[in-house]
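>> received
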Amino acid sequence: MLKNKMTDEVNAFDKTPIEINSVADGTYEGTAETTLVKVKVSVTVNDGEIENIEILKHECGKGAPANVIVNDMMLLNNIEVDAVTGATYSSEVIKAAVRNALR
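>> returned
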């Protein structure tokens, strides 16, 4: 079943927390994908803060509402924010792409 596959793929992401204040200033690109969702982001860090997150690519089914999750990440200076209701898989893939960018 596709839902089980998506769940397994999201659960397989490396969710090791990123210490934003230890990331060197700069702009970084990261990607993450599952069977149905593909994301590429650009993340800018300045003085230990997430200054900007730009979604460069988000191929998804009905997950486009998840794009607003980057606003919470910037506001809270934290990747580990709540998923957008109704777009959980896309939210998790976006968070994984941001983590990958900052690694």
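>> The chain has one domain: 2-102.
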